[in-house]
Structure formats: C-alpha cells, structure tokens
Amino acid sequence: MTQRKGIILAGGSGTRLWPITMGVSKQLLPVYDKPMIYYPLSALMLAGIREIAIITTPEDQVQFQRLMGDGSQWGLSFTWIIQPKPEGLAQAYVLAEDFLAGSPSLMVLGDNIFFGHGLPQMLARADAKPNGGTVFGYRVADPERYGVVDFDNQGNVRAIIEKPVVAPSHYAVTGLYCLDATAPQKAREISPSARGELEIVSLLEMYLAEGTLSVETMGRGYAWLDTGTHESLLDAGNFVRTLELRQGLLIGSPDEIAFKTGWITAAQLTARAKQFGKNAYGHSLAALYKTP
C-alpha cells in the first residue's frame, strides 16, 4: 500500500479569536507550553506519518517556517503550501494534490487537539483501509453545534448532518480525516456552497454515496479539543497543564514522539533540550532519555 501522507490545514483568518489573532495565526498561539500547531502535528506523527504538507495563509507562512523549519529536527519532511484565501476545508485536497501525488492522506485541522491512550491504534485501524474514507466521531453534549453522524441500526454511518436542529446522535465529526487517493479528484468535483466554500461535508458525502465512508468513534478515554474560541483556547491550555503537571508527561510534543519512535537520536534530543533549557519543556526533554 502507498505510504499515507499528512496534511495540516493551518490557514484561515481566525476571526472568532479576534483581537488576539489580528496579528498572528491562531495556530501559532500558545496552548500552555507549546504552539498550537504542535498538537495536530503530533497526531500525524502518532499515525506514523513523516511526509507532511502544511497549508498556511501567504502572510503567515514565514512565521510557521521560522518555528518549524523543514521538519528534519523531528525526522520529518515538510512541504509548505499557500492557501490564497480560505475557501473551505475540502480546498486543502486541491491545494495538496501535487504533494499527495496519488497517495492516501490523513488531514488534521490546525486548531484541533486529540488525546487518548489508544490514539495510535485507532489511527492504525483507519490507515489499514486502503480504499474509502474514515472520520472520527466524538461524543459531545451539544451536537447541534457540529456536523453530526447519523448511524443506522447496525452502527454504520448513514449520513453526516451539519448543525442539525434535532441531532440524530451525540457524535460530532472531528477535524481529522483519513481519505484515500481519490480525495483531490473528488474535491475538484465539488460545487461551492452558498458561502462560496468547498465544504468538507460535501466531500464526505461522495464517499458515503459510494458506500466507502466509515466512522471510528472515540470513547470515554479520549479528549478532543477545538481551540477556535477564547474559552476553548483557555480550556485546552488548562487541560494540558493539568495532565502534564500531575503525571509528569508531555502532551503534544513532536520532540518526544520523534525520539520514542526512533526518528531522532538521543544526541538530537539533547540538542533540542539544551535549546529550551531555560524552561520546564526543555527540562522534560532532557529527562526523556533517562526515564522509561
């Protein structure tokens, strides 16, 4: 099977977070001790993906590149793609078509945080499906705010309904999409919606019509955080801080994942730890190769 590639969609204008995003991309904002984009990047890394396209606005790309470089510090390879203007989530597949070059993909939104002990295994199950698409459903108390999965009696996805008045379930579709190699072609066939965007739901409906769309539901042991509002950004930072301080573990650290997967050496990790030696993040990296 062709190796799956990753996409991080880190564009958009971040208007829900104004005024704090009027001068900086929201995906560069801090979530406790790390930039927001580290968390979706970590999700791709936990799926074993090392070739990643990062889609940004024209004005923000230089800042992202200054932060993340070419990815080699984590054993990764980054391709930088500009999104001239935000025209829907499905537009990412059109923009990344040359990068994908016929490969299947795992796309994650740049303001989404995923956490859970079984996350790598869940991502591996989705990756094992060579054809079709997989979305990830998360139980929420207020499904009317999201795209919601409608299940049939056998637990198969029957429809995805955007912001339903009466929700068919409590499972919202998260910002993580595991799609096969036909995604760019399908995205090109989508007509813009009334708001002028290539809607991700329209793309998923094409897979659904083919009978090739499945849903992985995230149970009680998972957390999904969308950091697109002031309140949710603060909640995410507090969530990460609480777990890291209580357990002494890093969350959403590309440095940790790269070291534990063998993509970088202890010497490379040590260099990163020294780079951040004046703060707790650097101290945590320094301790990684000394503790199990």
TrEMBL record:
Pfam families, per the entry: NTP_transferase
Entry-linked InterPro entries: G1P_thy_trans_s, NTP_transferase_dom, Nucleotide-diphossugar_trans
Keywords, in A-Z order: Magnesium, Metal-binding, Nucleotidyltransferase, Transferase
Molecular-function GO terms, alphabetical: glucose-1-phosphate thymidylyltransferase activity; metal ion binding
Top-level class of the enzyme under EC nomenclature: transferase
EC number: 2.7.7.24
Superkingdom of origin: Bacteria
Cofactor(s) demanded: Mg(2+)
Alphabetized NCBIfam families for the sequence: rmlA
PANTHER family referenced in this protein's UniProt entry, alphabetically: GLUCOSE-1-PHOSPHATE THYMIDYLYLTRANSFERASE, GLUCOSE-1-PHOSPHATE THYMIDYLYLTRANSFERASE 1
Protein's recorded name: Glucose-1-phosphate thymidylyltransferase
Organism listed in the record: Roseinatronobacter bogoriensis subsp. barguzinensis
Highest classification ranks of the organism: Bacteria, Pseudomonadati, Pseudomonadota, Alphaproteobacteria, Rhodobacterales
